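Q: How would the structure tokens look for this protein?
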Amino acid sequence: MTEVRDIHEGDRDVWHTLFADYGVFYKADFSEAVLNGVWSWLMDAEADVCAVVAVDRGEVIGFAHYRQLPDTFTAAAEWYLDDLYVQPESRGSGAATALIEAVSERAASDGGGTLRWITAADNSAAQGVYDKIATRTSWVTYEKQT
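A: Here is the predicted structure in token form.
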């Protein structure tokens, strides 16, 4: 049975490995500066980015990074799931759903709003999970480097 809890300092090494693997999955090579920078945000109670981890039999098997944002369409809170990753050998265990539900529950307890996230167009395995628990939108995402 997967449990979800807040990330804490003792999770640094396993989070580092999982986050680096997440980067490889999306063809991003996270430098030590990026890994250390994101970790410092996660450990800073005043930072905008929060994290929860999925734990199975005492082992951290996945994580979700999320944040609250203002929503200009509702003048209320909106939540954004930045990153979600479950180690390959634990996929299909329900860990991804548990992570999303935990973030959703935290958002609901902090005023509610909409929880949004994106995934790669070719990540059909993740989309199969997401289609069961959320509504697929018609929005198209653009990026511009500055």
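Strands lie at 2-6, 49-56, 59-71, 76-86, 114-116.

The CA atoms of residues 23 and 126 lie 16 Å apart.

Upvote if useful.
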